[in-house]
Specification:
Oligomer: single chain
Distance between the termini: 98 Å
Number of strands: 8
Radius of gyration: 36 Å
Largest sheet: 6 strands, antiparallel
Strand order of the largest sheet: 6-5-4-3-7-8
Order of helices and strands: HEEEEEEHHEEHH
Structural class: alpha+beta
Helix content: 40-55%
Length: 168
């Protein structure tokens, strides 16, 4: 294979990989939390674990598509918070995580979202304006100090005994 053909094949493979990654994943959107297909969900009632699975875009519990609240309601009854009761095992993970903890982590990450380019430019412009204002104030102060020093050296401000006589 020539270098040109190898380059074409590499670019085609790269484009195909990008397209495959761009295909949206299937799964269940539970408010802020996205649970990809294959995720297992469980909650415990006394000594029994009630388990559901994400299939396609639905949470399947006992053969029916339900919401996490409906699952908790069917398993435990009213008065339970599904976020606190449900544990999640994401595909490829080994440990179960409480849904409320996952939600709290997402909210914490969302708070750290960097500003948009327009917001960043606005903050930078404000900082530059403040820096320029401070620099102008410092220059004005330095000019005033320089002027005062120069005026103190003028002959009318000198004492008679402080002047040197011209010696020829």
């Amino acid at each position: 294979m020539s270098p040109g053909e190898a380059l074409i094949k590499a670019v085609q493979a790269w484009i195909a990989k990008g397209r495959a990654d761009a295909i949206p994943a299937r799964g269940y959107q539970w408010k802020q939390l996205f649970l990809p297909e294959g995720t297992r969900v469980r909650l415990r009632v006394i000594t029994t674990w009630h388990v559901a699975t994400i299939v396609g875009d639905a949470l399947i519990y006992e053969g029916q598509a339900v919401s996490p609240h409906q699952m908790a309601k069917q398993a435990v009854g009213d008065g339970r918070n599904a976020w606190r009761e449900i544990w999640v095992l994401l595909p490829g993970h080994r440990n179960w995580t409480n849904a409320a903890l996952m939600r709290a982590q997402l909210l914490k990450q969302a708070a750290k979202v960097p500003p948009t380019p327009a917001e960043a430019m606005g903050v930078a412009a404000k900082a530059m304006s403040e820096a320029l204002s401070t620099a102008l104030t410092l220059v004005a102060h330095a000019n005033q100090q320089a002027q005062n020093t120069l005026e103190r050296r003028l002959p009318k401000y000198r004492r008679a005994w402080d002047t040197l006589e011209d010696v020829d």
